[in-house]
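Sequence of Extracellular solute-binding protein (Paenibacillus dendrobii).
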Amino acid sequence: MKMPLRKTLLTMATVLLGVSLLGACSNTSNDSSSKGTDHSGATGPLKLSMMYSDSSAYPFNKDWALFKKLQAQANVDLDVQSVPSPDYNNKLRIVLSSGSIPDLVTEVRQDIVSEFAQNGVLLPLSDYMDKLPNLKKKIEEYQIEDELENWRTKDGKLYVAPVMNETALYNTAPVIRMDLIKKYGLKIPETMDELYAVLKTLKEKDPASFPMANLESADTLRNLSGAAWGIDPSYNGFVYNQDTKSYAYSYTGDHYKQYVSFLHKLITEKLADPELFTTSLDSWKQKMVTGKSVFTYTWISELAQLNADGKKNVSPDFELAPIAPIAGPGGKLAASTLRIPHGIVIPASAAKKPYFDQLLAFLDYLYSDEGSNIVTWGIENDSYEVVDGKKQFTDKITGAASIQRALWDSGASNQNYTMLYTYDWFIKVLDNPLVSTLTEEAIANHWFPPITKVPKLSPDEKEEENMQLTTIKDAYAKAQDAFVFGGMSIETDWNNYVKDMENRGVKKLIDLYNNTLK
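Predicted 3D structure, token representation.
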């Protein structure tokens, strides 16, 4: 599995720095981008520097036709300063701590924005919303203010231009071998108890199997199934309780105890892969397509290839199919879906630059309909065409082995500068009608969990948090592994675990977070 669509969603939910400004925009545009840009009398393109997270899956290419068109149309010359993606966050902190920051810094996560927002390094974009009409419009259209609130500082200021998805997608789901469900006359599991019963039956039918497998890590499994258990989404394990108006730590609560108890039972009875927390993506795939495992949580967009391989390796009847969320103590909830994965920041020093207004105009263009269309759909009559008033990808794109791969190779859907992802675009890229059907069902039945409330910390509080979290995360991970695989007893060691976590910093952080609410 070279670049699973699991990463595609995370990557696509962040993509392509649209480069087109107002001076040379098409006259057909109806939004703010059509007004044109005055580069303070300059006749050549406006040169802007941009820090760029460079993925080995689709390395930056200055000769992408799309990239050239964007710059020409915008009358902008982008000086791309690429950094290999694995090193990006470390380099990002170094750059933001220096006195020399590019005009545009892409792919900045919420925790980094929070870290640097209050020390004068970043530009408070909320002070300039009158110069960002397209961004303001899209925030309202997407009804995303609840999630955007987590990116604001305590004084309400916003220091990031957010990448935004128009809607959450039900693209991660519990997935089961539907051919075996039909063959043995089993009921599709709707609760965790029913899931246990189904896995037990499938184990009896194939004693050499380990019915449940996991994509790769303990965090992945918890992220994909934790909402149903009532333990996720969270902020590093901490959750805000709307009833008590206070924070608590999920991973010492009763729901988490039920979660690790369930996994321990699966491991003990050999109903789950013994490599549940340590398997690789390639190993997981092999287990699924050879029939060694028959249930997992994964991306629906993975299923076409998995089923093709399974039909070759196991049976022509092989069918992995997504099902509705399996209800647990937390309810019938799907995995949390962030609609704002990251964004672009601008240094505060940019406000003193003679081209400041043009810089903001360029950023705002990325949120315009015209700019967004270019960076997601590509070039008309090359990567897409308009048929009966609707955009659709051309055979050049749909005929490729992967639509996403074809877009990446053209410079579109690049994680550094696409700021908007429309529902229609996502559905066409994923090219799986199940995603659309299940997303509509998820919205109608309220399967998506609520947004996690992120505490708003001062720089000093953030420093204290970082110190405590290092110890907490390490202790939590070790205890989780021990509870699931038998190194610790849930019956006899649980109370000591809870006390130990409190002493390692959980209580201090709960107090810290609750103080931010005053």
